[in-house]
Amino acid sequence: MTSTDNADAKSENGNFWFKLPLWKRIIAALILGAIVGSIWGEGAASIKWIGDIFIRLIRMIVVPLVFVTLVSGIVAMGDPKKLGSIGIKTMGLYIGTTALAIIIGLALATVIQPGAGIDMMGATAETLAPVMPLGERLMGIVPQNPVAALANGDILAVIFFAIIFGSGIMLAGDKGKAVAGVMDSATEVMLKIIHMIMEVAPFGVFALIAATTGAKGINALADVVPLALTLMLGFALQMIITHGSIIKFMLKLPATRFFKDIIDAQLIAFSTSSSSATMPVTMAVAEENLGIKAPVASSVIPLGATINMDGTGMYVGVVAIFAAQSLGIDLNIVDYGLIALTTTLVSIGTAAVPSASLFLLAAVLGVIGVGGEQTALIVGFLLPFDRPLDMMRTVVNVTGDLAVATAVAKSEGEFDEDIFRADPRV
């Protein structure tokens, strides 16, 4: 074999990795990480730093990505009325899908009764931070200092300022074109950076799953199997019935195509347990696989990562019923209504980071008479098992973001059906 042949063979071997669709590489990493973590045990924590670097790379890009893409998308709309139309549709769909998720969760928990006979006396109580009042949470959307909001990664405040800034460029007309051009170029740069970061994804996912499996073990859910099964069934029903129905019946599009197109985002959501960390991938999938155009993708997806919490809402609702059953509290129809309403409200704006929803329980359980000490005990009981449950509910959150974004894009004429129906470009 000549030196040229050797070079060609090496090149072919190197290209094999990149020719594999990204989702296949990530699934392989998930499986291999679970196997290595099960065998290696707690020693797998020594490679967690690889996964942490991957998450830091994604978090690094989230705030600038949200800001420049949202500003660019608003300017591309060309009409302030269109921004209002998109906002109303987005909020309505997000709140509606979250409410349906909570109703499904409450119904399943009532029938399956995952908390019946559960003894939590051996759990260690966790210290719970006070719940932020709704008014204070809403006030925090308006930043006192936009630069500080960007620096601190306060996504809701960044979204608010980006909307104001983009609207200002739009209203400035010709004098704002120079700034609009900068934002448009910056958006393209950010998307290229996302593609670079995603090449690291299989290695980061492998390390995260190995460390999680090594620390908790495959049998970590054994003590909460009824709760885990209830949640898994609920998550599956929410994606198939609620999200699938939006695509198939509301939009008249093939639901199987939708679920195949979004698998990259779902796998990253599963491994990172964070809608915020998944956001760059979600936005790339929305534009490149689903055919959602930038004006909608850049506004609906960041908002969804912050306020659309289908999986989180269902989780908190189910855990509230789980807690009532384990503590022997009888619930009436009014209690169920209060749980549903409170869960819907507190799930909006939940921090898009791992296990954040566990600490919303104080607000929800308080409405059915569960005290602070009992709530702390429940959180302490669930916390050791929460990571795998969190991984699953994050997948639901991200799937909901993309289903709603597709619906809004199609209704606004910002949707390319040819891209949606084509094979994902990965």
Quick structural gist:
With 426 residues, the protein is mainly α. It has a single domain (22-421), classed as Orthogonal Bundle (Proton glutamate symport protein). The protein contains 20 helices and no strands.
Can you put this structure into words, describing what you see?
- This protein has helices at residues 3-19, 22-40, 48-77, 80-112, 134-139, 146-152, 155-172, 177-198, 201-216, 225-250, 255-261, 263-272, 275-288, 294-307, 310-326, 333-347, 361-366, 372-382, 386-411, 417-421.
- The model has no long low-confidence stretch (mean pLDDT 81).
- It contains 20 helices and no strands.
- With 426 residues, the chain is mostly helical.
- It is globular, with a radius of gyration of 22 Å.
- It has one domain (22-421): Proton glutamate symport protein (Orthogonal Bundle), CATH 1.10.3860.
Give the overall average pLDDT: 81
User: What class would the helix/strand composition place it in?
Assistant: mainly alpha
What would you report as the Rg, rounded to the nearest angstrom?
Answer: 22 Å
**CATH fold naming:** Proton glutamate symport protein
Helix count from the secondary structure assignment: 20
The CATH architecture: Orthogonal Bundle
* Number of beta-strand segments: 0
Beta fraction:
under 5%
Estimated helix fraction? over 70%
Largest sheet, strands/sense/barrel: none
Number of domains: 1
Secondary-structure element string: HHHHHHHHHHHHHHHHHHHH
User: Uncertain spans, ≥5 residues at pLDDT below 50?
Assistant: none
* Bulk shape: globular
Report how far the terminal alpha carbons are from each other: 34 Å
Task: Please identify the top-level CATH class.
Answer: Mainly Alpha
CATH superfamily: Sodium:dicarboxylate symporter
